[in-house]
Amino acid sequence: MSTAPQSPAHALRVRETRLAMTLSLVVGFAMLAGKWAAYAITGSAAIFSDAAESVVHVVAVGFAAYSLRLSSKPADARFPYGYEKISYFSAGFEGALIILAAGVIIYQAIHRWLAGLVLSNLGLGTLVVLAASLINAALGAYLVWKGKKNNSLILEANGKHVLTDSWTSFGVVGGLCLVLLTGWKPFDPILAIAVAINILWTGRALIRRSYAGLMDVAEPELGSAIRDTLDRVTREMNIGYHGVRFRNSGMSVWIELHLLFPGGTVLEEAHAKATRLEHELKQRLPVPAEVTTHLESLEDHDRVHSGPHYEGKPEAQ
To answer: Is residue 296 packed enough to be buried (19+ CB in 10 Å), middle (13-18) or exposed (0-12)?
Structure first.
């Protein structure tokens, strides 16, 4: 099965997203090492919660990197619509891992609190976590920006996870500062539990987005952008349209619509206009798109679409 060659713009998007994902993985391992070292020297439940979240992050980034590479493969005989839907599996997987990490953090915090809190070297541990949170904040903002720029759900979800990790770290720093200032050790496990509850919301949001993408839930904002663009293009070409449907694959949008031509239009002319519209729509939309059109006669449109065949019923004999 032959496939069309990738455009230079598409190839550039793939390179940029892969580079950003590689950067995320490298930084993730560095943050993981730093946070576990901080936990080892302090015994802090709050730092443990941050380190556990980083374990999830590294595992999730590894799966996201695989998903990103798979999603950029062209369509083939086995997957005629391509591999881009893996983006939603990646987001759901990351969300599930975050929820699992939250459960481990809550259990560990309560267990340490009941067993008796022993903390040491909090000043040094706090500095390590603060440095990690600043690095992650910058990385997360970069990943979300690149993900939106290249319409990559995988990269955007990863960036939001990194930002969540950074906010978690900032919260841990605040809690450790309270322990240092007041000497009241229970601030440590209380903060760890608060961190776990906070990241639960991030995991829930990622799973909801995964479900929405796999089930092709309507996207009103994207639909409005598609129809606004169609209105402008069809006015310029003096043709009509209806029956617009679209689905988001995670990296591009697949659009189907019916075009309405005057009944006397020559087929060759109608086909040329349809091809031009498909090209214009791809160029003007803010996201990569694949467009499929169906040509119809304007004069008998209402009759055809109100007839028994349109409702899926056979005509009466």
So the answer is: buried
Helical residues (DSSP H) of 152-244, grouped into ranges: 153-182, 187-214, 220-237
- Tokens at residue 88, please? 């939603």
Answer for the pair 49, 192: CB distance below 8 angstroms, yes or no: yes
Comparison of pLDDT for 4 and 274, the residue scoring more:
274
| Tokens representing residue 146 in the block | 């690149």
- The C-alpha atoms of residue 291 and residue 163 are separated, in whole angstroms, by 35
The two beta strands, 289-297 and 240-248, are unpaired
CA distances from 317 to 10, 302, 308, 310, 314 (A): 53, 22, 12, 17, 9
Q: What count of other Cβ atoms lies within 10 Å of the Cβ of residue 217? A: 12
pTM over 0.85: no
Q: What is the pLDDT of residues 136-195, one digit of tens each?
A: 899 989 988 888 877 777 788 778 878 877 877 887 888 788 888 888 888 878 887 887
Q: What is the pLDDT of residue 307?
A: 56
**Cα–Cα nearest to 120, from 43, 175, 35:** 43
In degrees and rounded to multiples of 5, residue 245 shows phi and psi of -135, 150
**What pLDDT score was predicted for residue 58?**
85
State the pairing for strand pair 240-248/253-261: antiparallel
* 118: Cα separation from own chain's centroid: 40
Q: 133 and 170 in contact (C-beta within 8 Å)?
A: yes
Q: Please list, in sequence order, all residues whose beta carbon lies within 8 angstroms of the beta carbon of residue 121, skipping any fewer than 6 positions away.
A: 41, 42
Q: What domains, with CATH codes, occur in the chain?
A: 8-214 (1.20.1510.10), 220-306 (3.30.70.1350)
Tell the burial category of 225 from Cβ atoms under 10 Å away from its Cβ (0-12, 13-18, 19+): middle
Residue 107 neighbours by CB distance under 10 Å = 12
pLDDT in tens, 212-264: 888 888 889 889 999 999 999 999 998 999 989 998 887 788 999 999 998 88
